[in-house]
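Regression test case RT-17, inverse folding.

Input:
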């Protein structure tokens, strides 16, 4: 099992960050490489469209409003991994917040180092886009 992790500190309250990213359907609001998202199965499944036109289908596994976090798995997508599970969470950090995005997965057709680097880049790029959206 491989792992990837990224975090970012923001000068915005945890509640404000969670207001933007806490919805399972909210990726298009802050993640530029996912312009479309549609929910199904009572909000437990999201079908995402990447800017390259690729489809990613994910299932919500756990959600906590009080902990400002959710965990999901990829059911279908172009990433060369299987058994993917990731968590996105927002933590209070003084007058600001810290956002963490981390996942575990099994590489499928690529090396562990390549898979870890790929998801670290996705997470870091996504969190940088989040910072830009919230802080300008």
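Golden output:
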């Amino acid at each position: 099992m491989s792992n990837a992790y990224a975090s970012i500190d923001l000068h915005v309250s945890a509640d404000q960050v969670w207001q933007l990213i806490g919805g399972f359907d909210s990726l298009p609001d802050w993640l530029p490489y996912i312009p479309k998202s549609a929910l199904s199965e009572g909000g437990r499944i999201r079908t995402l469209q990447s800017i390259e036109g690729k489809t990613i289908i994910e299932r919500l596994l756990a959600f906590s409003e009080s902990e400002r976090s959710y965990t999901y798995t990829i059911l279908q997508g172009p990433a060369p991994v299987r058994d993917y599970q990731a968590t996105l969470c927002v933590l209070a950090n003084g007058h600001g917040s810290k956002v963490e995005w981390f996942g575990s997965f099994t590489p499928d057709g690529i090396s562990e180092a390549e898979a870890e680097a790929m998801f670290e880049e996705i997470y870091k790029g996504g969190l940088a886009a989040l910072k830009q959206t919230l802080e300008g």
